[in-house]
Amino acid sequence: MAEINRDDVAHLARLAHIDMTDEELDRMAGELAVIVDSIKTVSEVAGDDVPATSHPIPLSNVFREDVVGETLSNEEALLGAPDNADGRFKVPAILDGE
Amino acid sequence: MTDLIHLSADALAQKLAAKEVSAVEATQACLDRIGAVDGAINAFLHVNTDEALLVAAEVDKARADGDTLHPLAGVPIAVKDLIVTKGQPTTAGSRILEGWQSPYDATVVKKLRAARMPILGKTNLDEFAMGSSTEHSAFGPTRNPWDLDRIPGGSGGGSAAAVAAFEAPLALGTDTGGSIRQPGAVTGTVGVKPTYGGVSRYGAIAMASSLDQIGPVSRTVLDSALLHEVIGGHDPHDSTSLTDPVGALVEAARMGQVEGMRIGVIEELQGEGYQAGVLTRFHESLDLLRSAGAEIVEVSCPNFRYALEAYYLIMPSEASSNLAKYDGVRFGLRVVPDGAPTIERVMGATRAAGFGDEVKRRIILGTYALSAGYYDAYYGSAQKVRTLIQRDFAAAFEQADVLISPTAPTTAFKLGEKLDDPLAMYLNDVATIPANMAGVPGLSLPGGLADEDGLPVGIQLLAPARQDARLYRVGAVLEALLEETWGGPLLAKAPAILKIAGGK
């Protein structure tokens, strides 16, 4: 099972969209190495014959009647947004440059 | 009137029904208590004074008019700040949601309102319920009413401390790996994690969706049963909600009968790593149950030893996915770096500023476990362990009607003691995690004080899925037997808290 190093943490932090300082990366890499080391044996416990459980009490085909239920108004939906305009969420630029 | 705060929810409900006290008096007594002690405890992140008193006044008027009321109408309650409430802030203990107000009520909150229970406010927690000590709250730790230098457990330390310090007779908690039961254990209170799906999760801010469960927090077993019946039942807003009826939980608690029941001691949840005083009290509880006619049997759950590892893969994986929604677009904090940043840079800066260390650790760990190339070895393997844990439970419940263990391996530790050692912190949940992995219900009740430090010890009961009533049936008996040996409730032995005064 793989180890986890500082470069891995930097890569994962980018994937998770969390900016990290050098100091944070150093600390996080050390802490995560200990945690990963303690949980890595998990892959040795169960064989191929054991099915995975995704959900403790399986339910299937959970549907509701196809009718309009409770919904938030446009105003309510925007109430907690950091920025909005014309009844929509307003976001910074998606692409770099002009 | 100070006696009002010491009443159980059941006793208070009876006095309200008999018109011996008013709901306004009861609610004001709790608010006064919060004002007097919460400066020292920090159980509440928000106190909902006006609305609570308004609801109480409406209950009093309805009662005077002869309306039919829910038995708990007018009994005040505190709500963990992971559960969304209209008209009050919900922070999840995080800077990223500071000042945010939900546009809707959680289903459990709707049910409290339907029963007309005044909501006293929102209680402190580890950020996004990630922790075992409430020290990971962005708004400062909650302190244990038994010793203000010690942790109240976590993540629901605020709810447990609020009922232990007599600030509220009842509270709501959430339990993903022990966040209701472990705080109950270290504060000498009662906490119940219902069967997964037994109580709607709609409006509980998600950490790990396949493990999270809302449940009652109280000072007595019966009070938890009363609250459990209010909040339980099917909810179409939660697709994992069970369609079963809630069950006769209050009746089970009032009946309290163990004669002829088989109670299984889990071999793997005792011994090494467990504090001596915890084990002494645990064995005394076994003797009491035996004296009441229960048969104590030994059961083995060999795969429980892998539960913690599997949990620390499944929980962060699901959390990293659930917390992706905090992107600075739809709600909560937005941090805009200098220049003309793109949304990606805004997200990176927002999440860096808004999340605390433990949340970041779990998001990174979850992102790692779900990464291409590692998914099968980590997340996939952990899900297989989950199957093995379920099989262990199934085998154990063929030999026993209910299982029993200490709730936590130790009593409350000192604030700061495990903050720099995440792994040591995680070990607190070793006895509570298996129930979440399998979806079975669990209850923690006070088992006495450890000889070496005089701090509360918790006893955990576990029942098969959908058999929550058994927890109350056995819990009520053990509670009565223990209180007989103590000469009253354990909380009567709690020291300083009765004298503390500090503003809030």
From TrEMBL, chain A:
<dbReference type="GO" id="GO:0006450">
    <property type="term" value="P:regulation of translational fidelity"/>
</dbReference>
<keyword id="KW-0808">Transferase</keyword>
<keyword id="KW-0547">Nucleotide-binding</keyword>
<dbReference type="InterPro" id="IPR003837">
    <property type="entry name" value="GatC"/>
</dbReference>
<comment type="similarity">
    <text>Belongs to the GatC family.</text>
</comment>
<dbReference type="GO" id="GO:0005524">
    <property type="term" value="F:ATP binding"/>
</dbReference>
<keyword id="KW-0648">Protein biosynthesis</keyword>
<dbReference type="GO" id="GO:0006412">
    <property type="term" value="P:translation"/>
</dbReference>
<dbReference type="GO" id="GO:0070681">
    <property type="term" value="P:glutaminyl-tRNAGln biosynthesis via transamidation"/>
</dbReference>
<keyword id="KW-0436">Ligase</keyword>
<dbReference type="GO" id="GO:0050567">
    <property type="term" value="F:glutaminyl-tRNA synthase (glutamine-hydrolyzing) activity"/>
</dbReference>
<dbReference type="GO" id="GO:0016740">
    <property type="term" value="F:transferase activity"/>
</dbReference>
<keyword id="KW-0067">ATP-binding</keyword>
<comment type="subunit">
    <text>Heterotrimer of A, B and C subunits.</text>
</comment>
<dbReference type="InterPro" id="IPR036113">
    <property type="entry name" value="Asp/Glu-ADT_sf_sub_c"/>
</dbReference>
<dbReference type="Pfam" id="PF02686">
    <property type="entry name" value="GatC"/>
</dbReference>
<comment type="function">
    <text>Allows the formation of correctly charged Asn-tRNA(Asn) or Gln-tRNA(Gln) through the transamidation of misacylated Asp-tRNA(Asn) or Glu-tRNA(Gln) in organisms which lack either or both of asparaginyl-tRNA or glutaminyl-tRNA synthetases. The reaction takes place in the presence of glutamine and ATP through an activated phospho-Asp-tRNA(Asn) or phospho-Glu-tRNA(Gln).</text>
</comment>
<protein>
    <recommendedName>
        <fullName>Aspartyl/glutamyl-tRNA(Asn/Gln) amidotransferase subunit C</fullName>
        <ecNumber>6.3.5.-</ecNumber>
    </recommendedName>
</protein>
UniProtKB/TrEMBL annotation, chain B:
<dbReference type="InterPro" id="IPR020556">
    <property type="entry name" value="Amidase_CS"/>
</dbReference>
<feature type="active site" description="Charge relay system">
    <location>
        <position position="80"/>
    </location>
</feature>
<protein>
    <recommendedName>
        <fullName>Glutamyl-tRNA(Gln) amidotransferase subunit A</fullName>
        <ecNumber>6.3.5.7</ecNumber>
    </recommendedName>
</protein>
<keyword id="KW-0547">Nucleotide-binding</keyword>
<comment type="subunit">
    <text>Heterotrimer of A, B and C subunits.</text>
</comment>
<dbReference type="InterPro" id="IPR036928">
    <property type="entry name" value="AS_sf"/>
</dbReference>
<comment type="function">
    <text>Allows the formation of correctly charged Gln-tRNA(Gln) through the transamidation of misacylated Glu-tRNA(Gln) in organisms which lack glutaminyl-tRNA synthetase. The reaction takes place in the presence of glutamine and ATP through an activated gamma-phospho-Glu-tRNA(Gln).</text>
</comment>
<feature type="domain" description="Amidase">
    <location>
        <begin position="25"/>
        <end position="471"/>
    </location>
</feature>
<comment type="similarity">
    <text>Belongs to the amidase family. GatA subfamily.</text>
</comment>
<dbReference type="InterPro" id="IPR000120">
    <property type="entry name" value="Amidase"/>
</dbReference>
<keyword id="KW-0067">ATP-binding</keyword>
<dbReference type="InterPro" id="IPR023631">
    <property type="entry name" value="Amidase_dom"/>
</dbReference>
<dbReference type="Pfam" id="PF01425">
    <property type="entry name" value="Amidase"/>
</dbReference>
<dbReference type="GO" id="GO:0016740">
    <property type="term" value="F:transferase activity"/>
</dbReference>
<dbReference type="GO" id="GO:0005524">
    <property type="term" value="F:ATP binding"/>
</dbReference>
<feature type="active site" description="Acyl-ester intermediate">
    <location>
        <position position="179"/>
    </location>
</feature>
<dbReference type="GO" id="GO:0006412">
    <property type="term" value="P:translation"/>
</dbReference>
<dbReference type="InterPro" id="IPR004412">
    <property type="entry name" value="GatA"/>
</dbReference>
<feature type="active site" description="Charge relay system">
    <location>
        <position position="155"/>
    </location>
</feature>
<dbReference type="GO" id="GO:0030956">
    <property type="term" value="C:glutamyl-tRNA(Gln) amidotransferase complex"/>
</dbReference>
<keyword id="KW-0648">Protein biosynthesis</keyword>
<dbReference type="GO" id="GO:0050567">
    <property type="term" value="F:glutaminyl-tRNA synthase (glutamine-hydrolyzing) activity"/>
</dbReference>
